[in-house]
Amino acid sequence: MTREIGDFVIEERDGQLMIALRTGQYEPLYAESPEQLFVLSREADLHFAADAKSGRLVSGAFDIAFTRAD
User: What is the pTM for the complete model shown?
Assistant: First the structure.
């Protein structure tokens, strides 16, 4: 079985890095390291590859690969 999360958006808003896992529902992202970001409201971490063009969205329930879309 393959799991997909669909599109999500990461952008800077008023100096804060934000993520919208659902359309229009932004929440702050925090850096654990240069390659790893996390969300406080849920168990979700973003692990970026060294080139920052791909990575994994990791939670207790899933580990899903993603690719950056420009």
Answer: 0.75
Our count of domains for the chain comes to 1
Q: Is the sign of the CA dihedral 35, 37, 47, 25 positive or negative?
A: negative
Residue in this structure with the two tokens 């899903």, named with its chain if needed: 64
Q: How confident is residue 62, by pLDDT bands cut at 50, 70 and 90?
A: confident
Question: Domain range for residue 63?
Answer: 31-70
- Contact yes or no for 63/56 (Cβ under 8 A): yes
* Residue 21 belongs to some domain of the structure: no
User: In the numeric block, which tokens belong to residue 41?
Assistant: 């409201």
Helix (H, G, I), strand (E, B) or coil at 21: strand
